[in-house]
């Protein structure tokens, strides 16, 4: 099998999540680990790495925000049209390591997409974990992903939501994700999984480090410009690792070897 040749598969469902984000279900049979991604081709436009946000072995879900060439084009496509897909690639979240422990999931904006398979794993295997908390923040309530899942998820975990800016009808918390951190009940024996904009991950890491979470037990998913997805082309090489092959999920202490370590945490980590 040539790993550069995509499988050509149809779009079988499209769900509008927010004004700029849709979930595309494509008929690509594959098994995957939560946190893995595929290289998605839109023919004539290019390829982009996209996390798998769900799947049943026969189909996968890709939750895509329209930001550029490939992603804007797929937003104009319809059910029945064809895309290419390679993968799954990458290492995924350390779900096995979290078994028997507390689990803290922190997501910002579109960062909930790669974490959704973990959340769904928790719902279907609740007995594998101790306390589970999901903190999710978005800029506005209308920009929250997967709102139709929140009631179900809240039956299995502490679900804490926040928005930077309220809209009419929002009666929940207002403030960035870090303002929810004082509601975290369990620090010891906890695995943390985090995905969101770099600024959110930076400040959340700092707050969690101050609360006593060890950096070796905190994991984040890094976004890097990548092409091949299989650790050959070198586009995503940074500090001796290929983000596509060795990541995209890294523990915080490993990530700080090659991303800028915030000045404020120097003392905590050194
Ligand atoms: C491992 C991994 C998983 C990812 N998972 C997802 C996912 O599940 N859903 C998703 O929507 N995206 C995801 N992304 C980001 C996605 O790959 C990029 O948004 C995509 O490559 C953009 O391709 P494009 O051709 O549409 O944009 P381009 O035409 O390449 O870029 C157009 C412009 O948008 C800017 N741009 C590119 N990416 C982003 C971005 N993420 N945010 C803001 N501006 C950007 C570029 O700098 C450029 O100026 C993931 C990235 C990685 C590395």
Features:
270 residues; alpha/beta; Elongation Factor Tu (Ef-tu), domain 3; Rossmann fold; 2 domains; seven-stranded mixed β-sheet; 8 helices; globular; binds flavin-adenine dinucleotide
Characterization of this structure:
The chain is α/β, with parallel strands linked by helices. The protein has 2 domains: 7-89, Beta Barrel (Elongation Factor Tu (Ef-tu), domain 3), CATH 2.40.30; 95-218, Rossmann fold, CATH 3.40.50. 20% of the residues lie in helices and 32% in strands. The chain contains 8 helices and 15 strands. It has helices at 69-75, 95-98, 112-124, 150-154, 198-211, 243-246, 252-255, 266-269; strands at 7-18, 21-26, 37-42, 46-55, 60-65, 82-89, 102-108, 132-138, 158-163, 173-174, 190-195, 218-221, 237-238, 241-242, 249-251. The strands form 3 sheets. Strands 10-9-8-7-11-12-15 form a 7-stranded mixed beta sheet, sandwiched between helices. A 6-stranded antiparallel beta barrel has the order 1-2-5-4-3-6. A hairpin with a 3-residue loop joins β3 (37-42) and β4 (46-55). The radius of gyration is 18 Å and the shape is globular. The termini are far apart. The model has no long low-confidence stretch (mean pLDDT 92). It binds flavin-adenine dinucleotide. The site of flavin-adenine dinucleotide has 21 residues, from β4, β5, α1 and α3.
């Amino acid at each position: 099998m040539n790993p550069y040749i995509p499988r050509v598969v149809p779009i079988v469902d499209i769900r509008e999540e927010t004004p700029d984000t849709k979930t595309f279900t494509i008929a690509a049979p594959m098994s995957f680990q939560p946190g893995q991604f595929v290289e998605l081709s839109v023919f004539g436009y290019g390829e982009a790495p996209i996390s798998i946000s769900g799947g049943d072995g026969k189909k996968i879900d890709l939750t895509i925000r329209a930001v550029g060439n490939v992603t804007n084009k797929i937003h104009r496509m319809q059910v029945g049209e064809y895309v290419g897909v390679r993968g799954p690639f990458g290492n995924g979240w350390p779900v096995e390591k979290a078994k028997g422990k507390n689990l803290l999931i922190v997501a910002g904006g579109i960062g909930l997409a790669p974490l959704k398979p973990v959340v769904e794993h928790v719902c279907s295997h609740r007995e594998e974990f101790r306390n589970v908390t999901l903190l999710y923040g978005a800029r506005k309530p209308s920009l929250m992903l997967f709102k139709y899942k929140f009631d179900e998820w809240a039956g299995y975990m502490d679900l804490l939501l926040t928005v930077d800016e309220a809209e009419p009808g929002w009666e929940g918390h207002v403030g960035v994700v870090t303002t929810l951190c004082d509601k975290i009940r369990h620090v010891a024996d906890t695995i943390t999984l985090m995905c969101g904009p770099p600024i959110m991950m930076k400040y959340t890491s700092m707050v969690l480090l101050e609360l006593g979470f060890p950096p070796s037990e905190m994991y984040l998913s890094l976004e890097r410009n990548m092409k091949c997805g299989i650790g050959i082309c070198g586009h995503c090489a940074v500090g001796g690792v290929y983000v596509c092959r060795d990541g995209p999920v890294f523990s915080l202490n490993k990530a700080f070897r090659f991303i800028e370590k915030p000045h404020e945490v120097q003392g905590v980590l050194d």
